[in-house]
Fold this protein.
Amino acid sequence: MRIPFIAGNWKMFKTKADAVKFAEEFKSLYKGTDIQAAICAPFTDLEALAEIFKGTDIKIGAQNVHFADEGAYTGEISVSMLEEIGVDFCIVGHSERRQYFAETDGTVNLKMKRLLDSSIRPIMCVGESLEERDAGKAFDRVRSQLEQGLADIDAEAAVRIVIAYEPIWAIGTGRTATGEQAGQMCEFIRNTLIDLYGEDTADQVIIQYGGSVKPANAAEIMNMAEIDGALVGGASLKAKDFMEIIDF
């Protein structure tokens, strides 16, 4: 039985003081639910969030990680550093990381493997550009990302993975895939996982939709059969908006 999972991705927003203010408000609004909630925040906010959310069901996530345990990687953060704080999830391969910081399917795969050897669950992002969708290549692109990102990861580990389908053309643009479009791609992702791992494993993997999710469209998206949750960007920056999405 897959537990619905809604995660906020703050991107490069909120100082520690901002994060504390949000967390205290969100904690007061959060009354317990059958939906798993998490906040994926900048590294500098994570320790404060972990402290405020202690004793609740609210999880915290990082937005990136390096695949090496340690070394001369200026500016990077390791899995063990995140574990020490108490991080529960980590986003891997977000389109903005791919676009601006040279993230590739190969580095996604390395990060996935390292996270799966730890206590932190990866949220692996996949999605096509507008050009790829218009050219009829959306499904080919997403399948390629899945196959390369999940290479040499076995079924036992795969059940811990969260897949986030984020069409690049709908991230931060105000455009949103229709429920039908999102549901169709998430069904395709599920079927690809069946091809890779078999039905029993694929049925356990949580698949989220991300891309301009907000209170007004959360119900349409979440009610699609193969969508188990959402990766929320801008609407997760306000506690009331994020809670409304969780309460869809």
